[in-house]
Every structure is written in C-alpha cells, then in structure tokens.
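wait is this the right file?? whatever heres the structure
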C-alpha cells in the first residue's frame, strides 16, 4: 500500500500484553496493525491501533508516554524481548516503524521487574525510581542570589563526565533488561552526576549510603556484570557509573 507521499506502508501482527489491574491475571492479545507508515514512531503506531480498538467499543492498549521526544523517560516497553525495541540508543517514542518489515510479528510487553508492578497493560509503576532519588539524589544549597556560574571552577573533562551521567532519563530500561532486575545503572548515574562535581562532595557519603540502601530495600537485584543495562539504555549511559558508585560506596566509610 502506498501513501500520498509515496512512502510504503506496512502491516504487522501485534501480540500485546493485556492486564486490567495490578492484581489481575494478564494475557497476550493479538491485533492487526494495518496501513502503518514507516515514518511513524512506535507510539504513533500504537495510537493507530488504539483508534481502531476504541471504534470497536473495547478498551485501548494502555501505555505511558509524555514528551515523545526521548527526553522525559515516560515511555518504555519490551519489544520482541528488547527494552525500547531493536534500535541502539533509542527510546520507544523515538523508535520508527522503518525498522520493521511488512508482515512482522511484534511482541510487546511491559517492563518485568519485582520492583515495577504492572498497573495496566504496558503501564508499570516506576515510583521506586523516584524513591531512590528522594533518598539522596539532590544537593542541599542555601537559597539566595544567583551564584556566579564560574565561582566554582570545574575542569571541562569532569563536567562532561557529569553531564554524560546526567543524561539518564530514569525510564527503567536498565532494570527491565537486567537478568537480576538490577537498577544499578540508574542509581550509579544519579550518584555519579553529583560525585564528579565539587557541589556534590559535601553530601557524598550520606548520599551513596542512602540511595544504595533504598535501592536494595525496594527489591532491585545486584549487578553481576551482565552489561545488558548499558546495551539497552536509550541514553547509552556507561557501566563506568556502576563502578564509580561502588567506589563511592567503599569510600563512604561504611566499612571503616
Ligand atoms: S515519551 Fe518521553 S522519553 Fe519517550
């Protein structure tokens, strides 16, 4: 089938996880996705499928989204067993249908992790990530006038490493991809962005102990160097951040 702009459309068979509530039993349901432009994003493809489901009088597939620009971290699902789908360094909202072929079967599931309970269909409760941030992912500052941007000199190389860590959008793909459901890439990135900068040093010990403690308490697993997290992270956060978190943890004096 051709669109007015000449782009070829594709049709897919979807197998989507449907689950009415957190406590209910889920199952896969099949849908046909037809007349899908290769220029559409994955979420736009789901929108098209949902319009048809709504017209048939059934409840649409529930999925999380907000910015649809790869910024907010709201979207996410397992697509054919891959967190955020087959494309490296790409969120589900930025995944385009040109990466699929006409006639493909696409299996779509929610994040699977003990700490991420399914709320409905593809929507999971990721408030555990917020709780880790609340435990220490901040710096305490005295409010007042705006400080001079250059008052605390930070070497360029260090600033760039901190910014690389700060790119984490907190989508939870790391935990979903990890066989241990470890969220250490997320926690490591959030600790690193402060540990690298002078502004983060005064609370460094307290921060790492609180955030790692909360992460364990919430039921996330431990890192065993599978590296699935870094491979599936849509922001390509480096596993170096886990090593840095572990160093910060040892330096915190817990064992001294
Ligand atoms: S909807 Fe915001 S990152 Fe995908």
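ok assuming it is, sequence goes like this
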């Amino acid at each position: 089938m051709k669109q007015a702009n000449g782009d070829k459309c594709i049709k897919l068979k979807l197998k989507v996880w449907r689950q009415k509530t957190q406590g209910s039993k889920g199952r896969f349901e099949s849908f046909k996705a037809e007349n899908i432009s290769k220029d559409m994003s994955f979420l736009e493809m789901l929108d098209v499928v949902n319009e048809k489901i709504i017209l048939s009088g059934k409840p649409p597939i529930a999925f999380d989204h907000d910015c649809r620009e790869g910024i907010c971290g709201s979207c996410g699902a397992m697509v054919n067993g891959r967190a955020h789908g087959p494309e490296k360094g790409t969120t589900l909202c930025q995944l385009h249908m040109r990466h699929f072929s006409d006639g493909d079967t696409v299996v779509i599931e929610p994040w699977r992790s003990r700490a991420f309970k399914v709320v409905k269909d593809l929507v999971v409760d990721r408030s555990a990530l917020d709780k880790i941030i609340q435990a220490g992912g901040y710096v305490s500052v005295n409010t007042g006038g705006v400080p001079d941007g250059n008052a605390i000199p930070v070497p360029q190389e260090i600033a760039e490493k901190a910014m690389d860590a700060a790119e984490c959008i907190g989508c939870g793909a790391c935990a979903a991809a990890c066989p241990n459901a470890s969220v250490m890439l997320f926690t490591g990135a959030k600790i690193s962005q402060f540990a690298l900068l002078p502004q983060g040093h005064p609370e460094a010990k307290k921060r790492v102990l609180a955030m790692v403690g909360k992460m364990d308490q919430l039921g996330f697993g431990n890192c065993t160097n599978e590296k699935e997290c870094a491979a599936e992270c849509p922001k390509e956060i480096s596993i170096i951040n886990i090593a840095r978190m572990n160093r910060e943890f040892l330096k915190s004096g817990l064992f001294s």
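The longest strand covers residues 27-37. so i think its the right one actually
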